[in-house]
Amino acid sequence: MIRVGIAGASGLAGGELLRLVSQHPDLELTFVGGSSNVGRRPAELHPGLRLPFGGLTIQPVTDEVADRCDVVLLATPAPVSASLAGLLADKVAAVVDLSGAFRIHDPELHARWYPRVARDTVLTDRFVYGVPELVADRMADALLISLPGCFATAITLGLAPLVDAGLRLDTVVVDGKTGSSGGGLQLRTADLHPLRDGAIAPYAPAGHRHAAEVRDFFAQRKSEAIGRLAMSAYGVSHVRGLLASSYVFTDQEISPQELHRTYVRYYKDQPFVRVRRHTETLIPVPDPQAVLGSNYCDVTPLLDDDGSRIVVLAALDNLVKGAAGQAIQAVNLRFGLPQTTGLTMQPVMPA
Amino acid sequence: MIRVGIAGASGLAGGELLRLVSQHPDLELTFVGGSSNVGRRPAELHPGLRLPFGGLTIQPVTDEVADRCDVVLLATPAPVSASLAGLLADKVAAVVDLSGAFRIHDPELHARWYPRVARDTVLTDRFVYGVPELVADRMADALLISLPGCFATAITLGLAPLVDAGLRLDTVVVDGKTGSSGGGLQLRTADLHPLRDGAIAPYAPAGHRHAAEVRDFFAQRKSEAIGRLAMSAYGVSHVRGLLASSYVFTDQEISPQELHRTYVRYYKDQPFVRVRRHTETLIPVPDPQAVLGSNYCDVTPLLDDDGSRIVVLAALDNLVKGAAGQAIQAVNLRFGLPQTTGLTMQPVMPA
Amino acid sequence: MIRVGIAGASGLAGGELLRLVSQHPDLELTFVGGSSNVGRRPAELHPGLRLPFGGLTIQPVTDEVADRCDVVLLATPAPVSASLAGLLADKVAAVVDLSGAFRIHDPELHARWYPRVARDTVLTDRFVYGVPELVADRMADALLISLPGCFATAITLGLAPLVDAGLRLDTVVVDGKTGSSGGGLQLRTADLHPLRDGAIAPYAPAGHRHAAEVRDFFAQRKSEAIGRLAMSAYGVSHVRGLLASSYVFTDQEISPQELHRTYVRYYKDQPFVRVRRHTETLIPVPDPQAVLGSNYCDVTPLLDDDGSRIVVLAALDNLVKGAAGQAIQAVNLRFGLPQTTGLTMQPVMPA
Amino acid sequence: MIRVGIAGASGLAGGELLRLVSQHPDLELTFVGGSSNVGRRPAELHPGLRLPFGGLTIQPVTDEVADRCDVVLLATPAPVSASLAGLLADKVAAVVDLSGAFRIHDPELHARWYPRVARDTVLTDRFVYGVPELVADRMADALLISLPGCFATAITLGLAPLVDAGLRLDTVVVDGKTGSSGGGLQLRTADLHPLRDGAIAPYAPAGHRHAAEVRDFFAQRKSEAIGRLAMSAYGVSHVRGLLASSYVFTDQEISPQELHRTYVRYYKDQPFVRVRRHTETLIPVPDPQAVLGSNYCDVTPLLDDDGSRIVVLAALDNLVKGAAGQAIQAVNLRFGLPQTTGLTMQPVMPA
Question: What are the residue boundaries of the Semialdehyde dehydrogenase NAD-binding domain, all occurrences included (chains A, B, C, D) (predicted)?
């Protein structure tokens, strides 16, 4: 059994980690940490999870945690992750950070989007960043893993087949739509149910930091692959799941058939990416409700009538493939388990 | 492997059976049946379940199905179930019916609530009815199993500890609230999203047939246990999950502590019934969102301030513990597997 | 023009008062008060209401307010209302309180449900309480008006025809279902969208203070009319609108026809109460979505099959007929205007 | 009184027309037409509108209708509108069509997007198309008025200040998000509540016919103003209201201040367009919930950090400003009434 600690166990991603660890055959929960709710049992904070969790209660994270864990999952705010990563690096076999603290390697971009997150440059350089599908080999022996943001995961999985096929993406406009769970459980008036329900909330209409991750990642993977990438993000009126639409303008031509085939081939060995035709089932897909609760990312590439624009749609459950599920997937890769171990749950739909 | 056939695979309960069978280590899907959508693959009808299902397509149900299945699960409308049960009885090791065709043994009550469902009396008498928790022993060798309705499951699990403790329940008023998935996928204008969303729809305000099941069941278990039982049911504005509130008036006195203890003791060995205190977590429970996607039924007994009324709240996922999950649970019991096999998934919350 | 002041203008009821006053031909807003948000314009707090409101900003309520107002509407928490009513009584032509401070005349009941709301006994006795439909004559010259709670309004309008017809209601079980706007905009984790959406939240499962109002009101109107009255309340997954179901047990017999006629006759001259047949339109009614944004209360009386139970359903918009609309209706009555002035807006459905 | 007939009174836009006509001081409903539901009263079909409507029942539309009406509003499907317009043209003072039958003047574009809507070319040329704010003068004596689609209204109001300021918009990417009421009440499985709720449904991911209207309109207004315009549309999980995001790429520079001022000046005399700053109230705006039930269109222009992209957000209630409200506004203009007559209702929020 791999001994797992969770920091930030009170939040939504923390709760989802608890759910997935409890369903995983090879993981054993040995620590639950947090700065609030110290002394409380996880079940008090996560109404669905009425599990004993070995009697564990939430405790502050100290370096002694390393004695009890093989891996620590950080579902903490970025500034907290920045400091915990320093505390635990090299003391456990792996630190997996779900926050934005170590995602952007470019210092300027990082400072622009995470002005309050100071971090150690040497440490930062050691973090492996990326969706497991694209950097699986690097994760196998990574001591420090930084997982992409929920939108960044969807966008990256959506664009990678194009980039890796050698297309030059002159302009990419990303429109992201997410449910309210994307905002966590902070107490903000605008997130109370009466004001958040029924909303189309333009919370990041002219720029979103997940776009910076994506730019930074592809710039390192293949310089000049993407010209301009502009993103806007909206909160819509459901709870769980997101859809990222990438509108791609390129001078290179591609037929619809070729486009679809490129994606199918690219992901043919990836158990968690489902390349879907838009009309293959009784609702238009991809739709995040069709991945709810699962670790799937559904991807559909399309072409405008006149071939002038590629539209890539990618849907995922922001708390699973966009956070906790992807973290477990990374742990599986890191510890040599089959990628799907403990992650075989099918989507719960309708919900 | 136990070979499983599903009739009625196009509907919501059918889809949920597909999900659960695909996640079950000891079940093998060998047949998917239906009268509509013949020839289509299940994945076309269930957007979340993009699984090959062994290449099976939907086929009409004939008695040849018996050759391929050890158990057939009927997720069909009651009139269809009534005829399929006759077709398959004694040809497979077990028929499990999720419809209302064989739930009510009292002929008058049956005729009142299922006027269009003719059925064979001898066959009817052979059906074992009840929530698995209360009739587990009878399920072990039942050839024919009729599962309670979703509300009936919640109400029965809510009232059984009182009845079996010997209380006489003079008057029980049941108020049931369910999400839209309770109504299935029939094309009705009132169930289109614009009219159904935001509704509190009093669809059965002065009587509901699930109450008849409950009365009939308890009358057989313990005559005179319940005096009057009146039910009303409402559709509220979410998709999955129901809450049944039973307001119980009795002359016998019981303290809040004793009440809670009675329930805890009664269900202490039942893995799927969670007796919960109303305030034990950060939302008031039971709340169906805290069981979403799982086979749990959460039960909370309460007492009015002045002790004059017992309030029993029971929440479950109508498609799981109220339908498909309970069916798998019955199959587990019938075939001697641990009750929880394939049903250990934790609730997906928030969703 | 009648000069109107609003205290508690930041909250949901305050916002709704602003909406209705701005649409009223004979009312002029002369003061907006509150203890928080002092100095801010109402439009900053109410995203829909981008109106100048005569340049008014939120100011603390002092007795000088009386110089500027003919009537002050208190949309403040009960303890604040208790003190403001004392401050303003007899200084303005009318004080209309929307809180629970002065609803219950019975001191013991008041202390039980509002333990933290001390109030002046003499002042309390001067308050006229009740839904305008039932106490219109007393409102015509009332200096102090206390409006019923949202649920109390629905329950009272639902039961009054029975009580005033002379029926003895032995047992009444009330099940109330409301949207999230019923809980206001206080910052509570359980009310954040991810946890509140999809919920059936049993927030008052074994007793609700609005039942105390109803009992107190009918006891004064007709002693012994109601034997036992027990209430439970639930938050369901939409924003605006409530449904109160009253399950009435009585020894007296009444036919369905007689029952319906009793209600039709009783409310025939009341513009805001619509007595509706359950199946008169394409969704089952009453349903709060069919009154959304309007001052209507829809009422449907039904009888169980066997005549053993009367079911009275009453639906209203908790922010309009359950709060702000009813306040304006009271102001109309108090100042001799037609009851419907400024309140003729039709329901916005679907929404 | 202006005598108004409504064709297509059973649908959602028809219901909204009924609501608005009933609240309008100068309009008198003299005819309600439809091909389905003949003989039924409007109140049976519109649960919120329990109004007598002068005893009118739904009747087939014939040319005799012209005798009873000064204006006929067509809330009918495009093929029906195409034929009714021919029937009624020049027989009534005005025909106002809410469908897409006569929106696109370019024959090729029309054939591409409305292949099944044959129409008379001469008649088509006589139709005045456009949002009232931009073509008010032409509406004053128009016999035939074709109103823009709901998305087209939002996009056009969003882009007009830029186009009319002389900017050349090289590329415009429009992402539209709408609630389920945008799809009407046709019986489609995908629109049943269980499948539609919680969805982000990419129903028109690679092209939407409202974009063709917009292109056609601006091409006539100012040739070459817009280079490429590509649109995608999504159904999100609420009922009423839409948001259109226009991502504009231009070579011309404009500062954020100048941008905002351009819009404020442009719409300063327009009562229904509210130019709003993104953070001016407690939720990010524009958000369609802040215009619900009203005839407002809220518009917010923004600039990306680096000035490389203009983001124009426009929110409106698709059934009011996007359909019925705009129709009444057109009638007001046509008959010389103040534009806001009968349309002064404020948004109902939260809902």
Answer: 3-142
Residues of C in contact with D23 (CB under 8 A): 344-346
Q: Are C208 and C101 in contact (CB under 8 A)?
A: no
A177 within 8 A of A242, measured Cβ to Cβ? yes
Token pair, residue A297, equals 């990312």
Mean pLDDT confidence for B45-58: 97
Given a cut of 70, the residues of chain C with pLDDT beneath it are: none
Measured CA to CA in angstroms, residue D79 lies from A73, D76, D86, D186 at distances of 59, 8, 11, 16
Helical residues (DSSP H) of chain D, grouped into ranges: 12-22, 42-45, 65-68, 78-88, 107-113, 121-126, 132-139, 150-164, 193-196, 209-221, 256-266, 325-334
SS (H, E, C) chain A: CEEEEEECCCCHHHHHHHHHHHCCCCEEEEEEECCCCCCCCHHHHCCCCCCCHHHCCCECCCCCHHHHCCEEEECCCHHHHHHHHHHHCCCCCEEEECCCCCCCCCHHHHHHHCCCCCCCHHHHHHCEECCHHHHHHHHCCCCEEECCCHHHHHHHHHHHHHHHCCCCEEEEEEEEEECHHHHCCCCCHHHEHHHHCCCCEEEECCCCHHHHHHHHHHHHHCCCCEEEEEEEEEECCCCCCEEEEEEEECCCCCCHHHHHHHHHHHCCCCCCEEECCCCCCCCCCCCHHHHCCCCCEEEEEEECCCCCCEEEEEEECCCHHHHHHHHHHHHHHHCCCCCCCCCCCCCCCCC
Average pLDDT, integer, range B221-231: 94
pLDDT at C305: 86
Burial (CB count <10 Å: 0-12, 13-18, 19+), residue B257:
exposed
* Nearest-by-Cβ selection for D44 from C50, C239, C282: C282
The beta-strand segments (E) located in C107-214 are: 128-129, 144-146, 169-178, 201-204
Sign of the Cα pseudo-torsion (A330, A332, A334, A338, in order): negative
AA identity, residue D45: L
Can you give the pLDDT at residue A260?
A: 98
b vs e for B164-178, b when ≥16 Cβ sit within 10 Å of the residue's Cβ? eeebebebbbbbbbb
Can you list the domains of chain C with their CATH numbers? 2-126 (3.40.50.720), 151-316 (3.30.360.10)
How far apart CA A55 and CA A30 sit, in angstroms, is 10
B2: nearest Cα among B87, B85, B68, B96: B68
Tokens of B172: 């029980």
The answer to whether A297 is a known catalytic residue is: no
Distance from CA of B207 to the nearest CA of C (A): 6
Look at the block and give the residue holding tokens 């998934």: B345
pLDDT at B306 over 90: no
Q: List residues bridging with C172 in a β-sheet.
A: C229, C248
**How many angstroms away from the CA of C163 is the closest CA of chain D?**
26
Residue A252 has pLDDT above 90, yes or no: yes
CB atoms within 10 A of CB D259: 20
Nearest-Cα residue of chain D relative to residue C240: D351
* Res D305: pLDDT: 85
Q: Is the pLDDT of residue A223 over 90?
A: no
Which of B206, B287, B303 is facing C201, going by the closest CB pair?
B287
Do C114 and C209 form a contact (C-beta atoms < 8 A)? Answer: yes
